[in-house]
Specification:
The chain has a single domain, classed as 3-Layer(aba) Sandwich (Rossmann fold). The protein is 31% helix and 24% strand. It has 7 helices and 10 strands. The strands form 2 sheets. The chain has a 6-stranded mixed beta sheet with strand order 6-7-8-3-9-10, with helices on both faces. A hairpin with a 2-residue loop joins strand 9 (215-220) and strand 10.
Length: 241
């Protein structure tokens, strides 16, 4: 039998997660393999977003072991952060599109900022990521001409531009109605299965993680631990919003 030598794409071992110098998660242990889909749930202020910010190198790691995409976060230098972030696509709740630029120009801006120069390659990449989210016919539209669901699809296409190994989705359905939220979840799951990036999704929406079950970590009381039994996450998250 061949030994599985695949390494975690994200690994935290006894890691303290801090925000603005304050401890928000103590002794985090989390191992996520390439291609996994994982939820992080919890109340506002419980440390969910701080974990995301640590993964992208925004929050420094001073205690424990932390490795993301092959980068040791304890030893991460400022000049390495752009290279770490090229392995990561981020999807935000509020889309964060440049409202004065067309869809095409939003995507071109990101590619140029990450070192793409050849116009034909840029055009081809934009066409491919828009097709991947069903938005190839919206390249010339301005963001204000799009619905919330369409804007989030564009935001997901932006996250795909550099073929990331990891997609971080921070409340990606938070500003969407139920039907549109389900469509976005279907899209994220399809991307996860067909393209292979690990997807880490922060959410407080209990309907979402019940309808689309996956590994789940719960942040509460300065800890973030995996919920082993699905019945344990049948809890009231109404106050988690």
């Amino acid at each position: 039998m061949e030994e599985n030598t695949e390494r975690p794409i994200i690994l935290f071992e006894h890691t303290d997660i801090c925000a603005s110098g304050n401890l928000v998660i103590s002794d985090l242990n989390m191992s996520i393999m390439p291609g996994e889909f994982v939820y992080i749930i919890g109340k506002v202020g419980s440390g969910k977003t701080s974990i995301i910010r640590t993964i992208i190198g925004e929050n420094p790691v001073t205690k424990g072991n932390a490795v993301v995409g092959g980068f040791n976060l304890r030893k991460l230098k400022n000049r390495q952060i752009p290279y770490l972030r090229r392995k990561i696509g981020v999807v935000f709740q509020d889309f964060q599109l440049l409202m004065e630029r067309s869809v095409y120009d939003n995507l071109r801006f990101v590619l140029r900022a990450t070192g793409w120069k050849d116009r034909r390659n840029i055009d081809d990449r934009i066409r491919r990521v828009l097709a991947a989210v069903g938005m190839e016919h919206k390249a010339d539209n301005m963001p204000h001409q799009l619905s919330g669901g369409e804007q989030q699809r564009i935001a997901i296409s932006r996250a795909l531009l550099n073929s990331p190994e990891i997609i971080l989705a921070d409340e990606p359905t938070g500003n969407l109605d139920g039907e549109t939220a389900s469509q976005i979840m279907d899209l994220l799951i399809s991307i996860n299965r067909e393209r292979g990036p690990a997807v880490i999704m922060v959410t407080h929406n209990q309907t979402i993680f019940q309808q689309y079950p996956a590994r789940t970590f719960l942040c509460e009381k300065l800890s973030c631990t995996e919920v082993e039994d699905e019945s344990d996450i049948q809890l009231d998250l109404s106050e988690f919003i």
